Amino acid sequence: MKKIIFALTGILLFFNSSSCDPNKDKDDTGSGTNGGGVDIKYEMTVSIDALDVVKNLKDLDNTDLFPNGVIDNEGYCVRAQLFVFNEDGSLFSEDVQMLADFSQKAKVTKSMPSGKYTLVATADMVRLDGEKVEFQCWDFQNKTSLRNFRIVDIGYVGLEYKALGVSRSEVEIKKALSENIDVQPVGALITFFFHNLNASEMGYLYYAWNKDQDYYSAGDGTSNSVNDDIENEYEVDAQYTGFYDKRYFLPVNNVTLFWATLTKDIVVIKEGNTAFNVEVGNNITITVDVKAGTAAVSRSTRAASFSLDDIDYNRRPIKERQ
Amino acid sequence: MKQQRLIILTLLISSVCLASYAQGRRVAPEIVKTTFGVKAGLNLASISNGETDINFSPGMKAGVMIGAVANLHFGSRDEGSPVGTGWFGLQPELTYSRQGFAVDGAAVNFDYIALPVMAKLYVTKELNIEAGPRFAYLLGTSPETTVIQGAQIAISDLNGGFDVGIAIGAEYETQLGLTIGARYTYGFSNMADNLMWKNSVISISAGWMFR
Q1: Domains of chain A: which residue ranges?
Q2: Above 90 in pLDDT, residue B90?
Q3: B153 to chain A: which residues are within 8 Å by CB?
Q4: In this complex, do A31 and B194 lie within 8 Å of one another by their Cβ atoms?
Q5: Is the CB of residue B178 less than 8 Å from the CB of residue B208?
Q6: Which of A98, A161, A311, B93 has the most C-beta neighbours closer than 10 Å?
Q7: Closest alpha carbon within chain A to B117
Q8: How far is CA B53 from CA A185, B50, B149, B191, in A?
Q9: CB distance A3–B53 less than 8 Å?
């Protein structure tokens, strides 16, 4: 009888120790011991709304360039991307969805292990050839690391179709999560006008600015610029009253715009410069009166005195950016 | 891990052999009567969910239970009674037990091999109430994964887990050897570090003791 009791006590103690030792098999997550964990993934649904990226971009007559988010240019669509980074900043996943316009929302559903993540949602416009991207203004580089993740300006003029939006948010996954991201613009649209051009006196219009954007850093949300002369030169056409340049700029301070009018023999008639800052915002209009030698920088509103009919969208400077 | 499982299996087998040994060697034949039997029954199983991040109300599911028992019935009820009619008994069992729970109309199954060791108080010669620890080893699970409240859980990762719990119940045994019992078992062990589920099982069984 004693043997039985001893044996049963032994079994009891053994099971007790093997079942309740909290330090047992901590790493053995795959074999289901009570001291380990099971693989649990939680559903994360991210809805990406990029309408804010273009919501406030205005045309010359103060109407929306993208009314209700619609892109009035065949071939362009919205490229919405979601990059998910682990707590250590390494890329966990990336998803891309092409949307017909900004009124649509991208929806990404993923199974995620519990933990803290950084979500980076981006929206830009691309032109497609079938399913392949034929034209894009931004190149997404070093995506494997949040710290080094850069959205690099490829260098195309792009007009308003270069608008870029990036939003970053931190989430902790410990249950099923539904996250809405309103992607925000990270740059500003700048339009350059030159008034009072006189074709009988002036042969050429020259203008340049001294800083160019380089890339947007998704890791810390900063913009990086380089010192570079971006030069443009036009033959003077007094009949033309539209804009001479329209650029989507990432934020940068102390940009100087140089301009000059020249005779056909390349003799300077009038020249000047004006400095401006680019902040994340809606619209910046720089209007230069070449006769008076003055320049005005206005923000958020358009000069209403120009007719859309006057604009030659195919007009290109003699010397385009290389 | 493998070594540990081997030891457990050895112990499970040896616990049954132990009773045989006791009978074979007639250890204290004057105070204990050992009998063997088989039993089978129905489990109504569920879990208690202490997992706050996967908040749901698990439902019950039915499963089978089948196994072998060794009954050690001590002493005599009175001076004239034969051995094995006393007030107390001990009954180790080795059972296969299908447990689990139901969620959203689907069943999640846990297949355990269990070793309850029940101390018995014979209220009458036929009727006893029982209580004791229950040790269980999770042999298998199905399905491999399940989705609950948006959480995709790899149920198969639970395989090889242990459960230590307590069982209480009552059993009626006829003179011929037919037994009918009911038992409630509650597991104290969380099924995993990150899954605070505890087994909860109501069992109704019938069996036969070979006299």
Answers
A1: 41-182, 188-310
A2: yes
A3: 38-41
A4: no
A5: yes
A6: B93
A7: A8
A8: 35, 9, 9, 15
A9: no
Considering all CA atoms of chain A, what is the largest pairwise distance in Å, rounded to the nearest integer? 123
Residues contacting A153, CB < 8 A, separation 6+: A137, A138, A212, A213, A214, A215, A250
Enter the CATH code of domain A188-310: 2.60.40
**Region A227-238 average pLDDT:** 83
* Segment B122-143 mean pLDDT: 96
| Residue whose token pair is 């001893």 | A6
Q: Can you state the angle between helices A2-20 and B2-24, rounded to 10 degrees?
A: 160
pLDDT at position A282 is 67
- Could you give the ipTM of this predicted complex? 0.75
Reference A218, options A165, A281, A158; nearest CA is A165
pLDDT of residue B11: 47
A-B contacts at Cβ under 8 angstroms: 132
Is-same-fold flag (A41-182; A188-310)? yes
Write the residue in B28, B147, B193 that is nearest to A36 by C-beta.
B193
Q: Could you tell me which of A235, A261, A242, A260 has the C-alpha nearest to residue A303?
A: A242
Do the Cβ atoms of A4 and B72 come within 8 Å?
Answer: yes
Tokens of B39: 């039993």
Per-residue model confidence (pLDDT) at position A316: 54
Domains of chain B plus CATH, in order, are 2-210 (2.40.160.20)
Chain B residue with the nearest C-alpha to that of A7:
B15
Residue of B nearest to A177 (CA): B150
Partner-chain residue, chosen from B151, B155, B192, that has the shortest CB–CB distance to A42: B151
- B143 to chain A: which residues are within 8 Å by CB? none
Question: Mutate which of A2, A3, A4, A6 to disrupt the B interface (most B C-beta within 10 Å)?
Answer: A4
Q: Which residue of B has its CA nearest to A11?
A: B11
Closest CA to A55 of A300, A303, A309: A300
Q: Report chain B residues whose CB lies below 8 A from the CB of A34.
A: 161-163, 189-193
* Among candidate residues A180, A185, A182, A183, the one with its CA nearest the CA of residue A108: A180
Amino acid of residue B40? A
CATH architecture group of domain A41-182:
Sandwich (2.60)
Distance from CA of B207 to the nearest CA of A (A): 23
